[in-house]
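Memo to structure team: turn this sequence into structure tokens by end of day. - J.P.
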Amino acid sequence: MGGTSATTGIYHSEAGATVVRERYEQQLDAWPVPVQRYRIATGHGTTAVLTCGDPTGSPLVLLHGSGANSAVWRDGVELLAATRRVLLVDLLGEPGLSDPVRLDLTTPATADWLAGILDEFEIGATDIAGISLGGWTATDFATRHPGRVNRLALVCPAGIGDQTFRKVAPAFLLSAFGSRGRRRSAEIVTGLDGHEHPEVLDEICLLFEHFRPRTARFPLFDDAALSRLTMPMLALLGERDRVFDPVRTRERLVRLCPDARVELVPGAGHAVLGQVPRIVRFLDEP
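Reply from structure team:
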């Protein structure tokens, strides 16, 4: 992942980068609730942050996955923002509006970066919800700064169960065979049915036509790190996730995290859709 140097080649071309940015701008223009946009300068790269919801409400940070941006939260943000101060953070080095920088995930750099963003918004402790790489980012931050996380919600998080490259390797090969190959690749990796979720797969295919995904393995958190997660936690795992082993993820969280609630979503793969109401119920618990 190349330390903290800028990775300018996260897109296949500048024209492709423009296509992705323009599509994201269209999604932000159609955002279902009023939103404010910020660009936060950090020691690791300039970061795009969206804020919405009740400015006096309890804070909630939302972190998307790899190969995505904060638009993944669009369909549920209205519910999340009803009573909360919501911050949606575009991860560095992903197809959002933050800098094309990929930090060394074996160092504290990612947690330091997120801490700096919270400081900028004068947030001490917050709830955090993260998907996949966003789940890794949330977990990493919570293990290093447990006093700054009130509740932690993870959806198919990286870094806890084994990364099962062998199950998705055929998908990466298919992506070289034009639009049909990319479509089939997206179906395999996400576990989504093309007939049931055509629009979601269309968005993924558009991104991966132009974006270069991460290829390195995500670091696994050791037992000592996970044992520091003593805050209330919800983990939603796809029963058929081909990217991160859900059985191993569940076993480690149940064994090591005293207040973890782990739920397998029947039939779901790595893309577990429609879970915002479940996350809201968890965040609202006394």
